Every structure is written in C-alpha cells, then in structure tokens.
C-alpha cells in the first residue's frame, strides 16, 4: 500500500528559502524537492524532449520509488494528433530510459478538440505503444464528461489498452469568482469540466487544483480523501498531484493531503523528512 503525492514542478521561485534551500544548484533542486514529495508531474517534456544526459541527472537525484508522470511531447499529441509519431516517440522513449521504474506513467494529454470521433486514432496509438511502460490519458473534450455513450467508448478504449484516465479536477477553482491575479489567469486557462472519480487501473492518477487560499484548497479536496482512502484499501496505488493557481503553498499542501490519508490508514508509509532550508544551530 503506497500513496504518492506531488506538484506540477520541482522548482518554483516562491519555494526558495521557505521550503527548499536557497541558493541551490540546478542539479540539486530535484533532490531537495524529493524530500518533500515522492512524485512530480513532468510538464516540461510537453514542450521538448529532454536530453538523455539531463534525464540521467533526474535519476541520480531520486530513488527508485520516486514517480515521474511524464507528458508526451506536443509534437505527438497536438501537432501530429497521434499519427505518424514513430520518430518522435522513439526519441522520447530513448531519452527517458535512464529513469527506469521512476517513469511511473507516460501522460497523453489530448487537446480539447480531440473528441469522440477521434477515438479510433487513440485506440490505434495505444495499441502501437511498447508494453514496457504504463500509460495514462487526459481528455478535455466536453462530450467525454457529458455524453454517457462517449464516456463508455473512451473507457473501453483505455481498458483494452490497460491505460488510465487522468481527471483534472477544477471544481474548487471555479466554485467562486477569482480573488487573486493567479486565480483570474487560471480561470482563462484551465478546463471547466465535471469532476471524475473513477479508476480504470490499479494505478489511478489525480490532478487537483484548488485556490490560492490553503483553507479553500483543503476543503475542496475532501471527496478525494475519501476516494483515495478507498482505493488504497482496495489495493490500488494512487498518485495525487496538488496544484493551486500560484502554487506558492503547493509543497506543504501535498504533504498535508498525504498526512490526512495517513490518519485514516496509519500503516501508510510516511513521506521523507524535508531538507532544512537553513543550517541547524545550537542556539
């Protein structure tokens, strides 16, 4: 029984000197983050496939139980829309190979225009993928959330491939008008879709975004504490990513989520002890 929690990135300016040591060499930032959380979203891989040497440094800074959920490059998902992707996919898989088991799942985030009529392309793409990796799909077309037939068809495609459906829960974000600049910006960029709380595999992945108020964020994730506790009791191994519009408090919030689950399931392994931000003194 293991719960992994994390954030959308491992380095963020508001964390420096508060939660993570500062200054800190770039090659040590992931190592410091990994003392707070045991998973991270790999959003940067959406924009470009990293150099293999860069990925080797990621592996060196984390233990084998650490989880990366790595987003496939946009050339594959958005530009080529899952067709004729062989060269790009091969380059990506080669680049991330040094992560080994840390590459928990490859994240296929599809554009909002990718709808029910495109499911044949998704099924074909998933069928061609190597079985050495676990796959998870995030969709943003409204029909998958409002049309039961489209939802069932997507579930069938994913289940046949052994892939998970990643929900991005934005309900708390949109529950009240934005109160900060970051919330206003998030309102223009984040998908406004119904929340989904069903798992298709033994390794569900959740993306949750709250508000810049830690209290509102925590109150909003209450349904997830129930669901994640139930999944763990069933023998599943979930990964939960905590976001806020400015992400300033995302690190401690991720740990707070884990702590709340651990109060319900005391046998759940604890997270690491965070790295000190300042040297310890005798006085």
From TrEMBL:
Q: Which Pfam families match?
A: DUF72
Organism, scientific name = Bailinhaonella thermotolerans
Q: What is this protein called?
A: DUF72 domain-containing protein
Against InterPro entries, the record matches this protein to: DUF72 (IPR002763), UPF0759_sf (IPR036520)
SUPFAM superfamilies given for it? TM1631-like
Signal sequence, start to end: none
> Lineage, please?
Bacteria, Bacillati, Actinomycetota, Actinomycetes, Streptosporangiales
């Amino acid at each position: 029984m293991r719960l992994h929690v994390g954030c959308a990135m491992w380095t963020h300016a508001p964390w420096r000197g508060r939660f993570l040591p500062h200054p800190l060499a770039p090659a040590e930032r992931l190592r410091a983050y990994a003392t707070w959380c045991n998973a991270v979203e790999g959003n940067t891989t959406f924009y470009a496939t990293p150099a293999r040497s860069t990925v080797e440094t990621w592996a060196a800074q984390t233990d084998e139980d650490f989880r990366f959920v790595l987003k496939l490059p946009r050339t594959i998902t958005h530009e080529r829309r899952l067709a004729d992707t062989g060269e790009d996919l091969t380059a990506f898989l080669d680049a991330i190979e040094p992560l080994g088991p840390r590459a928990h799942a490859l994240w296929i985030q599809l554009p909002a225009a990718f709808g029910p009529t495109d499911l044949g392309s998704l099924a074909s793409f998933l069928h061609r993928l190597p079985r050495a990796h676990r796959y998870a799909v995030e969709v943003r077309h409204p029909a998958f959330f409002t049309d039961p037939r489209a939802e069932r068809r997507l579930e069938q495609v994913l289940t046949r491939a052994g892939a998970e459906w990643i929900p991005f829960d934005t309900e708390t974000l949109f529950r009240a008008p934005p109160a900060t600049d970051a919330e206003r910006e998030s309102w223009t960029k984040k998908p406004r879709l119904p929340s989904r709380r069903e798992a298709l595999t033994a390794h569900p992945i959740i993306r949750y975004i709250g508000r810049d108020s830690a209290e509102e964020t925590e109150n909003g994730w209450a349904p997830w504490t129930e669901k994640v506790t139930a999944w763990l009791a069933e023998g599943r191994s979930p990964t939960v990513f905590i976001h806020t519009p400015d992400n300033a408090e995302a690190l401690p919030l991720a740990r707070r989520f884990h702590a709340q689950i651990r109060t319900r399931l005391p046998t759940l392994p604890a997270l690491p002890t965070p790295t000190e931000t300042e040297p310890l003194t005798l006085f």
